[in-house]
Amino acid sequence: MDRKLGLTVFFVLCTIWQVNAAVNCTATGAGRFTDGTDPTCQNYTYCVFVSSNSSYLAYNYVCPSTSVFNPASAKCTASTNYVCNVTTPAPANTSVCTADGFVADPNAVNCSSYIQCVQINGTFDETTFTCPANTFYDPNTTLCDSNYTCTTNTPPAANTTTAPFTCSTVGRFANSADTACKTYYYCVLANNGTFVQYNYTCPTTSVFSPTSRLCTTSYTCPTS
Ligand SMILES: *[C@@H]1O[C@H](CO)[C@@H](O)[C@H](O)[C@H]1NC(C)=O
Ligand SMILES: *[C@@H]1O[C@H](CO)[C@@H](O)[C@H](O)[C@H]1NC(C)=O
Ligand SMILES: *[C@@H]1O[C@H](CO)[C@@H](O)[C@H](O)[C@H]1NC(C)=O
Ligand SMILES: *[C@@H]1O[C@H](CO)[C@@H](O)[C@H](O)[C@H]1NC(C)=O
Ligand SMILES: *[C@@H]1O[C@H](CO)[C@@H](O)[C@H](O)[C@H]1NC(C)=O
Ligand SMILES: *[C@@H]1O[C@H](CO)[C@@H](O)[C@H](O)[C@H]1NC(C)=O
Ligand SMILES: *[C@@H]1O[C@H](CO)[C@@H](O)[C@H](O)[C@H]1NC(C)=O
Ligand SMILES: *[C@@H]1O[C@H](CO)[C@@H](O)[C@H](O)[C@H]1NC(C)=O
Ligand SMILES: *[C@@H]1O[C@H](CO)[C@@H](O)[C@H](O)[C@H]1NC(C)=O
Ligand SMILES: *[C@@H]1O[C@H](CO)[C@@H](O)[C@H](O)[C@H]1NC(C)=O
Ligand SMILES: *[C@@H]1O[C@H](CO)[C@@H](O)[C@H](O)[C@H]1NC(C)=O
Ligand SMILES: *[C@@H]1O[C@H](CO)[C@@H](O)[C@H](O)[C@H]1NC(C)=O
């Protein structure tokens, strides 16, 4: 009786653990295996074949103390007997940037923000900008637009904003007063027909190119 109860508890726990199995037991078959990505070499999975339903139960274990799992002998062994040589995989390139310019913010649910990409010394400097209220980032124009239809947005509600300066059309414009070419204006057309003006500064060593209208290290500021 006790043994049957014990087995039942055992299998219930196994079912829970099986969900998080580090190893695909269907691929490995029965036995003890490491998933091959554990840089500590201490983790292994025990795969048990259940003949009644031709499936596997999997248990994740950790070798005790400082011992490590030797995949050849399928046992935990002293670290002096087996040299763990699992190199952690190279960090994934999660950059959304592929060139100087602008890309939609993949985390923006509402097309409400975008990312400025500036390649500096081989890696991208990424700066996230938020569109003005009720405007949405249009990847085609790379501008925030009040009548761009974002596929995941909730419809715009109220009329938006104004600013002095001479924003007379939408887009990014060099600040001609800035001899260092570091700053630029960004003009967004609000729902009520007026412009919202932003002043931005290019990151680190990049400058604003008036021809490509973006921050880049490829442009040489004539006066700097
Ligand atoms: C596990 O391995 C089997 C056999 O190689 C394969 O068919 C199955 O898709 C794998 N399952 C997962 C979750 O990778
Ligand atoms: C090793 O196992 C421990 C305990 O289950 C877990 O916290 C850890 O994430 C595992 N490491 C790897 C690389 O799977
Ligand atoms: C196979 O049987 C075991 C033991 O009864 C159970 O824990 C497991 O969930 C079953 N697997 C499948 C895929 O039905
Ligand atoms: C570790 O593995 C790498 C690649 O598999 C190999 O080049 C290197 O010689 C190994 N180092 C040791 C100490 O075994
Ligand atoms: C990241 O991946 C993109 C696209 O695959 C590539 O263009 C870019 O150069 C990569 N960035 C780095 C820093 O490797
Ligand atoms: C999407 O936009 C609506 C209306 O502007 C706003 O109420 C909502 O909070 C936004 N959702 C997210 C996730 O930002
Ligand atoms: C880029 O690299 C050069 C030379 O390698 C270095 O002098 C400069 O500081 C770097 N610039 C940035 C912004 O990291
Ligand atoms: C971008 O422009 C192209 C060609 O002008 C058009 O076919 C496409 O639908 C536009 N995409 C969006 C998201 O507006
Ligand atoms: C916005 O909508 C107006 C009127 O529907 C249209 O004339 C204009 O071209 C649109 N602007 C953009 C950037 O699509
Ligand atoms: C346009 O709308 C914004 C708010 O949506 C408001 O701040 C601004 O004053 C409006 N401009 C005019 C001229 O009505
Ligand atoms: C936005 O402003 C325009 C011009 O003032 C007006 O005709 C329109 O009704 C306004 N829209 C909303 C949603 O208030
Ligand atoms: C943006 O630039 C305009 C014109 O040079 C200036 O009047 C305004 O104060 C600036 N705004 C900010 C926040 O720097």
Automatic annotation (TrEMBL):
GO cellular component, one term: extracellular region
Signal peptide (from-to): 1-21
Domain of life: Eukaryota
A molecular-function term among this protein's GO annotations: chitin binding
Domain Chitin-binding type-2: 22-86, 94-152, 164-223
The keyword Signal belongs to this UniProt entry's keyword annotation: yes
Keyword terms, alphabetized: Signal
SUPFAM superfamilies the UniProt entry points to: Invertebrate chitin-binding proteins
InterPro entries per record: Chitin-bd_dom, Chitin-bd_dom_sf
SMART domains linked: ChtBD2
Protein name, UniProt field: Chitin-binding type-2 domain-containing protein
